[in-house]
């Protein structure tokens, strides 16, 4: 496996994940019959993933910088 394929595969996985999460949220928002308890929980997980990704990146930079100082 070429070394340039691994970053490309990671970027594709990230884009597919974000696209899938957007589809989940849109389907629950647009179609009223999709607003079941289970689908609302799935929507919650899809939106929490975005929030936790930002939180993880912020804390990673903060903690890595703190260890350098």
Q: Would you mind describing this structure in some detail?
A:
It contains two helices and no strands. By secondary structure, it is an all-alpha fold. It has one domain. α1 packs across α2. The longest helix is centred in the C-terminal third of the chain and has 32 residues. It is flat, with a radius of gyration of 17 Å. 0% of the residues are buried. The mean pLDDT is 83.
Task: State the helix count.
Answer: 2
Nearest-angstrom radius of gyration? 17 Å
Distance between the termini: 38 Å
Overall tally of structural domains: 1
The total strand number stands at 0
Helix and strand content put the structural class at mainly alpha
> What is the makeup of the main sheet?
none
Anisotropy-based shape: flat
Low-pLDDT runs of 5+ residues are none
Mean pLDDT: 83
Fraction of residues in H or I helices: over 70%
Organism: Strongylus vulgaris
Transmembrane segments: 12-31
Keywords: Membrane, Transmembrane, Transmembrane helix
Protein name: G-protein coupled receptors family 1 profile domain-containing protein
Describe the structure concisely:
The chain is an all-alpha fold and 69 residues long.
């Amino acid at each position: 496996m070429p070394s340039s394929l691994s970053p490309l595969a990671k970027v594709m996985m990230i884009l597919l994940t974000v696209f899938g999460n957007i589809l989940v949220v849109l389907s629950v928002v647009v179609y009223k019959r999709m607003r079941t308890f289970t689908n609302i929980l799935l929507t919650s997980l899809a939106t929490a993933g975005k929030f936790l990704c930002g939180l993880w990146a912020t804390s990673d930079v903060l903690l890595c910088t703190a260890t350098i100082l």
